[in-house]
Amino acid sequence: MTTLAAVDCGTNSLRLLISRVEVVDGVLEITELHRLMEIVRLGQGVDATGMLAPEALERVREALTKYAELMQVEKVQAVRMVATSATRDASNRDDFFAMTREILAPWGAEAEVISGDEEAALSFRGAVDDLELELGPYCVIDVGGGSTEVIVGDHDGTVAGSDSVAMGSVRLTERFLQASPPTAEQVQEARSYVAELADEIVAKVPVDKARTIVGCAGTFTTLSALAQGLETYDPEAIHLSQLRFAALRALTASVIETDAESLAANPVMHPKRADVFAGGSIIVDGLMDMFEALPLSEAAKEEQRFFYISEKDILDGIVASLVDTHIAH
Questions:
Q1: DSSP 29-46
Q2: Which Pfam families did the record assign (predicted)?
Q3: Helix, strand or coil, per DSSP, at residue 91
């Protein structure tokens, strides 16, 4: 039995997954012990200044220290921490890495910057784990705080194409959506920006080959919770739920017209996500526009008119990468 931990430091959140792994009668079994998230907003102001804010670094230090204490309690044997969009862009990123090296010293680990392609591949690996084989090929979309990853591939991990584009909920909010709720002009500017990057995705990734579209990470999972009218955030109800485009557009329109304070009052909304949720919703709208504009047959379009929502994501992909390295199976 081996206990492994994955840490994902994105632009908006710092997340932890601790899993116990064992081989029983030749079959690999992975049991989730803890899945935690703290909104640390590491990407605060990075788009404008090119630097990680000192207060953002301190928020990460506090959250990562708590995670390390839990990993000690659970006797974690190996840790992998990945850092994504915000640290790729920051001029003072060495301060961030020195801090993670100090906190993760018991495991000889530190944060590693991964490319957009690897970020997409890890998200894909985690997101499709519970989906049926016949639903492939899949297009997995991970909307983060600073970037969005799109990857098309099959259940066995064969990748047909991927892209990481600089549109995320925090980035869009800081760049375009100064008011809450945003003005019509601000929303239109953000939509135009997303549309340009959606064209880039279509040029690089064979999204027209996907049979099933999978949305993962906080924007998608929170939209699912809102769509279902959940009274509390329930991962089991959200995982593998489906959001049809027509109904989802009505929901995102309502979100965009609602101020952050009112959004934060909803019990399924993380209060520190509320102020960037309109930005994430605009990205989801643009992705639906992208899929609906594809030159597909009516039958193929019908298959692509909804998102499967996955609670599994890059954290599960990171654990899987640790299994490859540390577990003989």
A1: EEEEEEEEEEE--TTTTH
A2: Ppx-GppA
A3: coil
Q: 């298959």: which residue's tokens?
A: 303
Q: In this predicted model, what pLDDT tens digit does every residue of 18-60 receive, in sequence order?
A: 999 988 777 788 899 999 989 898 878 777 788 888 999 999 9
The single-letter code of the amino acid at 97 is: F
In whole angstroms, how far apart are CA 195 and each of 119, 293, 300? Answer: 22, 11, 22
Tokens of 233: 């955030």
Q: 102-111: per-residue pLDDT in tens?
A: 999 999 999 9
| Residue 179 buriedness (CB in 10 A; 0-12 / 13-18 / 19+) | exposed
Angle among Cα 100, 54, 186 to the nearest 5 degrees reads: 110
Tokens of 264: 């934060």
Query: In this structure, are strands 212-216 and 241-244 parallel, antiparallel, or unpaired?
Result: unpaired
* Residue 302 bridge partners (DSSP): none
- The pTM score is 0.83
| Two structure tokens written together for 283 | 């990205």
β-strand pairing of 159-165 with 212-216: unpaired
Look-up: residue for tokens 């945003």? 182
**Cα(100)–Cα(103) distance, rounded to whole angstroms?**
5
